[in-house]
């Protein structure tokens, strides 16, 4: 686990700790975020704090026996349930064993914690096994579960949990974090943030790795295809492993062109591609733009959801559609 802490995790962390300090922390805590790593960070920080013997306010000391035992994952009251790559029977037995140990040591005054890093790794059988203990939890026992936002949760399980949700930070927080953690220009930071749905870490990786350059080159290829009115030129550019990214960039470009068409200037994504956006926007009517945008969204969805689809053929068909589009 990378040891980077993000400022937008502070509020949830503080809320959980405050509830614990006030003896109001619910026994089963489900933390959801736009990426699972955020839930690891929060839960891990809370667990370290709970087991720390020399707490400094809302911080753990990092040096006491409790902290050291947790760091090395040897704390006798800490259980972690990674159920991936195990078979069902093994998984259920593992849960039952943990429950048995927790129940047998429940009379002791110290806290016990079971961490399930990813809800999606649980089968319906393990959910049922867990429900038995969550419905009547032993004293001083907490269950922490991580989940991705909007992943479906079993109804009964859901009703037994308290939820904490972590969303992407707003644009200003994202921008100031990128400014502190990179040397990238503000204008490009903003583009990267918007392309990556306001996830600052993804935006940072996007701009620092080859994606940024590839995006610029790909938009040059699109400019070329539009100027020559030959969209089939794009086929080899799309016939690559990162085809989904490239289609996503096409979608964002068409979306910006549609926004320009309707004079919506806020939340432009590709602010470094204004000439290309103007060019596309002038070339096609609103309805045509809308149709081609929808058709690329559909194409990307098919590529994601249909196994063994002939993606070369699908993209060729898509480019041909673009090629024969009526200009305004
Ligand atoms: Zn400590």
Key traits:
8% strand; alpha/beta; 5-stranded parallel beta sheet; Rossmann fold; Zinc Finger, Delta Prime, domain 3; 328 residues
Give the cofactors and ligands: zinc ion
Overall average residue pLDDT: 90
The global form is elongated
The major sheet is characterized as:
5 strands, parallel
At CATH level 3, the topology of the largest domain is: Rossmann fold
- Indicate the radius of gyration in whole angstroms: 25 Å
The tally of beta strands, per DSSP, is: 5
Query: Any low-confidence stretches, pLDDT <50, length ≥5?
Result: none
The CATH superfamily of the largest domain bears the name: P-loop containing nucleotide triphosphate hydrolases
Helix content: 55-70%
CATH top level assignment of the largest domain: Alpha Beta
Cα end-to-end separation: 53 Å
Q: How many domains comprise the coordinates?
A: 2
Helix and strand run: HEHHEHEHEHEHHHHHHHHH
Quaternary organization: single chain
Structural class of the secondary elements? alpha/beta
CATH architecture of the largest domain: 3-Layer(aba) Sandwich
């Amino acid at each position: 686990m990378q040891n980077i802490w993000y400022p937008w995790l502070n509020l949830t962390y503080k809320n959980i700790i405050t509830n614990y300090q006030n003896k109001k922390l619910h026994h089963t805590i489900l933390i959801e975020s736009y990426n699972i790593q955020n839930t690891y960070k929060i839960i891990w920080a809370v667990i370290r704090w709970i087991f720390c013997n020399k707490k400094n306010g809302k911080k753990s000391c990092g040096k006491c026996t409790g902290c050291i035992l947790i760091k090395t994952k040897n704390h006798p009251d800490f259980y972690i349930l990674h159920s991936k790559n195990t078979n069902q029977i093994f998984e259920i037995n593992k849960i039952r064993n943990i429950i048995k140990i927790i129940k047998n040591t429940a009379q002791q005054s110290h806290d016990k914690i079971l961490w399930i890093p990813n809800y999606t790794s649980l089968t319906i059988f393990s959910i049922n096994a867990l429900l038995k203990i969550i419905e009547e939890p032993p004293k001083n026992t907490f269950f922490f579960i991580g989940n991705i936002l909007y992943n479906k949760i079993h109804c009964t399980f859901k009703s037994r949990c308290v939820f904490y949700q972590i969303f992407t930070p707003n644009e200003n927080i994202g921008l100031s974090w990128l400014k502190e953690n990179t040397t990238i220009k503000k204008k490009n930071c903003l583009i990267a943030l918007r392309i990556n749905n306001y996830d600052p870490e993804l935006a940072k990786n996007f701009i620092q790795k080859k994606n940024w350059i590839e995006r610029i080159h790909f938009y040059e290829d699109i400019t070329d295809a539009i100027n020559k009115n030959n969209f089939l030129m794009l086929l080899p550019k799309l016939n690559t492993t990162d085809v989904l990214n490239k289609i996503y960039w096409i979608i964002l470009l068409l979306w910006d062109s549609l926004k320009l068409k309707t004079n919506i200037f806020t939340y432009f994504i590709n602010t470094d591609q204004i000439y290309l956006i103007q060019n596309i926007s002038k070339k096609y009517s609103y309805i045509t733009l809308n149709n081609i945008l929808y058709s690329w969204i559909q194409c990307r969805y098919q590529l994601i959801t249909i196994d063994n689809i002939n993606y070369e053929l699908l993209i060729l068909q898509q480019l041909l559609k673009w090629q024969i589009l009526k200009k305004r």
